[in-house]
Amino acid sequence: MRLLRELLLAATRDEQQFLTSLVIGEVRQGALEGLVLEAVAQAARVPSETVRRAAMAAGDLPSVARVALAEGAAGLSRFSVRLFVPCSHAAQTADDAADAVARLGRAALEFKLDGARCNSQAGR
Questions:
Q1: Distance between CA atoms of 1 and 18, rounded to whole angstroms?
Q2: Three-state SS for 94?
């Protein structure tokens, strides 16, 4: 809470409104979640893959961020997929489209505002 307060005090009015909306979940743009995930990983000094896995299993990035900042990678290892608890998508990042296709084999490519989505077409 102290860090958030300091951040908000240092921010402009527009930045304060954006950050407040982001924290309370009013910003619904997927690219921002990825940026926040990376920021949490850097702030907690843990690999982004560790934060991404925990966030996917928890389906709740704010709770994962709290644990990451307080307990680091050891705390994040407690997050796992549980029955009847929704999890977020299990997307992975790739360096570029060629890297994604090399990993997936036959795939469908969909361009997005913030990049591209590549889905496996195996067995189709």
A1: 17
A2: coil
Q: Is residue 47 a contact partner of residue 41, using CB atoms and an 8 Å limit? A: yes
SS3 28: coil
Candidates 105, 112, 122, 124; catalytic one: 112
pLDDT digits (tens, 9 = 90+) for 67-93: 999 999 999 999 988 887 777 765 667
As for how many domains the chain has, the answer is: 2
Whether residue 40 sits in one domain with residue 22: yes
99 shares a domain with 85: no
Task: Please indicate, yes or no, whether residues 24 and 75 belong to a single structural domain of this protein.
Answer: yes
Q: Would the pTM of this model clear 0.70, i.e. be above it?
A: no
CB 58 within 8 A of CB 79: yes
Per-residue pLDDT reduced to its tens digit, 21-61: 877 877 666 667 788 889 999 999 999 999 999 998 888 88
Q: Are residues 26 and 78 in the same domain?
A: yes
108 tagged catalytic: no
